[in-house]
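Re-run with default settings, no changes from the original entry. Doing this only to confirm the output is reproducible before filing.
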Amino acid sequence: QDFEAGEEEGTTLFITDIADLDAVSKALPAQGIKVLSVKLGYKAKNPISMSSLSAEQQEEVQEFLAGLENDDDVQHVYAGLVD
């Protein structure tokens, strides 16, 4: 389990195994921590730096991800890319 600064100022993102999600979401309020939301997400084990890709590869990846995001049947897109 891990944590990092949240996207909004003054928030913290708690990261845990899926099996522990319910227990962690219940334990935090018991410790006086306000939980704003609980959701499943994915964090890449081996992220790839976009700068390590050629310009052609970067464009191909961006077009592919944009195509997925624009598909009405796709709810969430997770990519193991870092800037």
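The first helix runs from residue 21 to 30. The CA atoms of residues 29 and 35 lie 7 Å apart.
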